[in-house]
Amino acid sequence: MTFNQVALEQAAVRGLLRVVSGFLGHDVAPEWRKAAEAIPRHRFLPDRVWLSDDDDLLTLCDREREPERWFAAAYGDVPVVTQIDDGQEPEDLSDAIPSSSASAPSIVFKMLELLDLAPGMRVLEIGAGTGFNAALLSHRLGDINVTTIEIDPAVAELASSNLNGLGYAPTVVCGDGSLGWSAQAPYDRVVATCSVQRVPYAWVDQTRPGGTVLAPWENPWISGGLLRLTVGDDGTATGRFTPDSSFMLIRTQRRDLRLFRDVVMDDHVPVESTTTLDPWAVADSAFETQFALGHRLGDLWYAWDHDPDFDDVETRLWVSTTDGTSWAAVDWDGGDDTERYPVWQHGPRRLWDEVEAAHDWWLANDRPGPARFGLTVTPDGQWAWLDDPADAWRLP
User: Fold this and answer.
1) What amino acid positions are annotated as catalytic residues?
2) Is residue 186 part of a domain?
3) Are 228 and 109 within one domain?
4) Structural domain count, the chain
5) Is 369 within the bounds of a domain?
6) 81, containing H or E segment
7) pLDDT of residue 2
8) Ramachandran class of 220: left when φ > 0, alpha when ψ lies in -120 to 50, beta otherwise
9) In the 8-state DSSP scheme, what is residue 249?
10) Which pLDDT band, with edges at 50, 70 and 90, does 379 fall under?
11) What's the domain range around 386?
12) Is the Cα torsion angle 384, 387, 389, 392 positive or negative in sign?
């Protein structure tokens, strides 16, 4: 490596840390700054990655063909997709689904900060990815105190190779992260680098009382949120949300549910009604609104159809249960002064009625955002709550 290359890498790290400090609102803590300076992020990226363009579509970036673009991505505060479609690359990238990535450094360091680590603590990481996060943890805590688990064999092998290449040797396990890793339990901290719609109780069970479980969160209605739980002596965990995260869903909680294959059938005879609730007020609204509604609606998801094959319908909003047994549709005719929207509902539940009730609840509680919400996890289930854990409702 030439002097110029070393200088370039050092300058890139300093620049990235300045950006991360701006995101955090304060300087990166000295212990994490030292870790970042010792662990070049580009050493954890494969030569072929996928980056988002101006239209938010993925484009291939090959290090050999575009070395400057590849290096800029390595030290940009952006996520870098390192695998698509679980390793099966499609012919058309417009259909590709990211399945592994290097998270944006700002959220990496925010989550490390939220872990509130101290020397000697033992950490389980769910989702090894490139191995970068495990390297930062190993630098801070020592290899013996870090375990990282990855479900994809190829990704686990890459992470292990990247870590070993820089002299780090935490325990790297290829397995189902939703089960945790009891062989090294109990842990002081469990941190996930993938989002969950339900916190696996194994994570709570394998954490010491007083310990922390930190995981990106999503629900079927919207993706985004960061959940920090504290484990109690009674085997339950309780904590609150912040809005700063968006991660790939853990693979064991994925659903392959398609609207016109699994939900809406030709023989369905829906019930017709109308509503004054603007569909955009619930499904194209601010993140804070949709986050709250998602917690109240539990197992509902939605999809827009902006070119439906129906007379006098410009746009249709579909809402469905995650098991596909009930659905609702709300139509807009394209007019500027619409006061009532046609509603169609089918199945044992009246989903648009549930959406209206959730929206009314949100308004009645002063339009709460993520910071007012929390979650309690027990061996028997999970409960969401607003402001006070004593006033909770069970999630599906």
Assistant:
1) 103
2) yes
3) yes
4) 4
5) no
6) strand 80-84
7) 60
8) alpha
9) B
10) very high
11) 104-254+374-396
12) negative
